[in-house]
Amino acid sequence: MVDPANTPLGKMLLEEITPVVMVLCTPLVEESCLKNGLSFIQMLSPFCNFTNIDVPVRTASDQPYRLQKFKLRLFYASDIRQPNLEVAKERLKQVITQAGEKDFSEMWSDPPQVNDLLSRPESEILPSWFQFFNEELVRTLSFSDHEAFDHPVACLLVVSSRDEEPINRFVDLFNTNKLPSLLNDGAMDPKILKHYLLVHDNQDGASEKATKLLTEMKSTFGPNDCQLLCINSSQDRQIHHQENPWAPFKSDALPTENLGCFLNFDDFNEIKDLMQELSSKHIIPYMEQKIRVLNQQVSATRKGFRNQIKNLWWRKGKEDASDSPNGPVYTFSSVESQIRILGDYAFMLRDYELALSNYRLISTDYKLDKAWKRYAGVQEMMGLTYFLLDQSRKEAEYCMENAFNTYLKLGSAGQQNATRCGLWWVEMLKIRDQIKEAATVYFRICSEDPLHSAVMLEQASFCYLLSKPPMLHKYGFHLVLSGDHYKKCDQIKHAIRTYRSAVSVYKGTTWSLIKDHVHFHIGQWYAFLGMYDVAVTHMLELLACSHQSKTTQELFLRDFLQIVQKTGKTFEVLKLQLPAINISSLKVIFEDHRTYASAAAASVKESVWHSLEEDMIPSLSTAKSNWLELQSKLMPKKYKESNICVAGEAIKVDVEFKNPLQISISILSVSLICELSANLEEMNSDGNGSNIELQNDENKTSTSTRDIDSSSILSEVDLSLEGGETTLVQLTVTPRVEGILKIVGVKWKLSSSVVGFHNFESNSLNKNVAKGRRKAKYSPDNYLKFIVIKSLPKLEGIIHSLPEKTYVGDLRHLVLELSNRSKFPVKNLKMKISNPRFLNAGNQRELNVEFPACLGKKTNVVQSGGHSNINKVLQNVFLFPENISVQEETSLSWPLWFRAAVPGNISLYVTIYYEMEDVSSIMKYRTLRMHYNLQVLPSLDVSFELSPCPSRLQEFLLRMDVVNKTSSECFQVHQLSSVGKQWEISLLQPVDSILPSQSLFAGQALSCFFKLKDRRKSSTSEDSIPSPSLLLQSDVRLGPQGNSEALFDVYSSPLADFHNSERLHQGMPLQGNEYKVDFVFISQLLKGNIDSGAPNTPLLISHHACHCSLSSMSSISWLVDGPQTVQHNFSGSLCEVNLRMMITNSSDAVASVRISTFDSPSSSIQSSDASAPQPGLPPENQAGWCDIPVVNDMKVITSDALATRFTKSVSLESVSQFIWSGSSSTKLRLQPRSTAEIPLQISVFAPGIYDLSNYVLNWNLMPSSEEEKQGEASKSSGVCQGYPYYLTVVQST
């Protein structure tokens, strides 16, 4: 049987219930001790704990016993008081916080599993700081008036030899005004043992004076109660103690602090002897004598049958008294207090039998007096005494429970006492292996203080874990409760520790809701502490939470993506749960005669291509059989049932993605994972051939296809899934060499930072394979394995300089490049374009023209009504000249004209038909399908109003209104031309007077008035009327007077072609009407955010109106300068763009300027779908590209509708994905009338258009000293939001 004194509870009691010595000392004593970095009590404390004092003790009985372990507790008189509740709570909070900081270093590693914990001893399972916290919690009840073991047994009066009149100082120290309230209020006897100590600092000189003072002290206070202590014998501060005994008693000491540096070995021994003598020769004998005296008094008054009857008779009737928390007041001289002191003294001297008999005696008295707090305290001590005597366990537990319940009945007045009683009771139950009951007591200890409750709940959880058998559900549940309480007290690290321990409990169970709760909060708390990698690991467990509500799913996904974004890393997750992949719906499709220039073209519905190509391709009767089918008949028998693909041609795989959530999600960069082997003999074997694994580099992004290596190309697809939506995604792999290609799986990116992988397994697949129009049967082993044969003729096409984003009216000269990478030429080329309003084929002689000079009006050339490009023949099919062919490994370039006709997201479809020569195949032709998506933004809103002139015949007044609908661009007006019958147009007033700069800035409007004159003579003869076929135009230059820049010819290709397309689109005849007039308004964008496709070439903007019927300056100014458009390959790295800011001080004072940048929310610009502005920001502070609703860029307004003209507002969307990578705040000092230049830099993470106005400029003018002296200084300052500056970043090819 284990000795109770050696158990954790026994050791705690021997530490906490020991005699208290009150210390009274002078300031000079403290001054001498502080030279060693210690107070007087700290200097003595290491020598107050005796493990083998070996002192004989005789209390009430005649049989002495020897006391081996003994400890003194030293306190200053000012500290002998009941601790302040708030201060005690703060101290406990510090203990918990420090423990959290210490334990958190282990939070980077994986938490131990439950089975591993159960295999460890208890000492390794429980956190080490629990015991220290419990001890601190017990100490918050020190010096209560109803418990005598905290009352001072003796008083140590300490005076320095340097004090004046030391004898008088001793007398003054024990002044009643300086004594604790316990002595002054009558709670304890003030006549306690006094011991007088004279401290001499050897650094102050020899000890002769101190010796004389000691003699005087002995003659005054008695020879046995006076002692001399000499300290600081070292003079050079060179004493270093290897095992410093003072470190545990000075918690705030620095690791480099040398405690006790002036105390040498002699001082060390002298202090030790002092405390040994004080304990063995003074305090212990004093307590023995006190016990014997009190025992005689109690025996005379309370013990014996007669005294008991007398006591009961005297207390008769008190049971009718009203209850009160403390009951009646007992002074130290009362019999009840004397019995309690007798019991506590006996307990501290290890005479537990005597202590128990007195506790029993006084317990009844307190109960009859209804002094419930004192009654509970005695019951508590009885339970501890039973435990140390190792007698009746039942009695011990009864006393502890009785005391605990009595404390709780007192409410808040007894809560702390109940906590202490519960802690001692728990330790008692643990020692007796009653672990489950101990957990119940921990739960009952929980108070209104959430921090204390958190610690108790956590200790209760470990009891459930250590119980036999382990109660894992309750263990996990109490850990979660504890962590929740920790979080309420801002103890995040402790909350993480408890929740992490709970993870192993719920892992592999069906308790999904509590698992989600645990993982979500752990992820949030880790992110709060900046440990994003670990946070992401836990948040991944929440992605497929289909059992949660929509609001909860949004919360989980939003927090997950925010945490991932903060990491700045890319996470790779095998079998990522979001989205779910339906492997059984996998489908493989090959190319036949239909080929595609891009993945975007391949995703277009077949009906769109069919309608575009039905007038181009030969009758289907000539190509009833697929060429791949017939060619497969010529192959060896062992390849007949194998998948065949052509080197250089894409294999398309349809994969079904399902969103298990109720909210929409975006999936990026979906691509295949493939393996390619060059050995064809491996088709029917499982040999260990050398395979090349093909997958996209997760550190790169792409929106079409990417060259992985010399053997294959893989495609990438981005998609968005609504809640519960299932969608089919087509992915491609293009082998370049012959061999065997195996599709292994699929990968994708969730919000560009999380990469998911899913491998295809043949046993879970439906064999759904299509080669063009043919379905075949394949064995499971060969389902995703392909034989790659040699290359066949196939054209590749690209339209150079076709913009992804532009403005309405943008007119460009483009080049179509067709490349034939095979060894066989192709001929008989045809082309059909889906929307002639946007794209027209030019003439071959226009290939190398200089744009826009080629559009200039030729002098001395008679205008005709015919149009160019006569080989734009039948049914909008463009026939290339018969002598044109694309030879082997060459390319053909052909001019195209592009004009952005209307705003919005525009899809252009181009099909090129070609026939092949010298190929032993029945496939005589192939088609190249090209698809381009472009975003057209509104530019200028142009409207015309035509009204007759009241003073002259055949003259009309034309009003042209132009509004710049962009947010940052500046357009330069160039010319206005009329198209129709013979109209003469002229300005009523120079444009210089209306628009001096000839530039129309963002949001600016311009109104110009023209005179339109009918040049036909007033005659009824047919000869006087021009022929309808001769449609002439009249032009007006809108630039400055004297400008020699040539006018553009609106009646020649391509302006005339696009104008006719506009008329045809509106259902108007090409030859016009005598009562109608058409206008062409031409402007230029000299330097904007849209790349013109050629260096130093402005954008040419043309607006066509058809069928117009005759019915304060600041002291500080600045400019941000830099590139407007940047091309960058984001596959390799982010894009860094250097800018500069020119700041000018136009005042006569010195200016202090500070530029502060801040980052905007990031998002790529992929479409023009309107979205709401960012909450919390005014429109002028929002960054991103301008999204304007789709409207016509040209309006024709009659005189009746003129009053209804209005301007629509422009909204900005915060979608930028960049950060300022330079200094976030720059401050400079500008001299009067000076200019400074500041470099800026941003880092862009994705293509898009970005508004770099997210900075603030603060300026302050500082007056000169002379102005201050004259009192004329006027302080001026301002805060300015950054000007809009748009930067276009384009993905380079």
UniProtKB/TrEMBL annotation:
It comes from the Eukaryota. Residues 606-805 form the TPPC8 first Ig-like domain. Residues 1195-1254 form the TPPC8 C-terminal Ig-like domain. Transmembrane segments: none annotated. InterPro entries: Ig_TPPC8_1st (IPR058541), Ig_TPPC8_2nd (IPR058538), Ig_TPPC8_C (IPR057651), TPR-like_helical_dom_sf (IPR011990), TRAPP_III_complex_Trs85 (IPR024420). Residues 686-707 are annotated as: Disordered. Residues 809-928 form the TPPC8 second Ig-like domain. SUPFAM superfamilies: TPR-like. PANTHER family: TRAFFICKING PROTEIN PARTICLE COMPLEX SUBUNIT 8, TRANSPORT PROTEIN TRAPP. This is Tetratricopeptide repeat (TPR)-like superfamily protein isoform 1. It comes from Theobroma cacao.
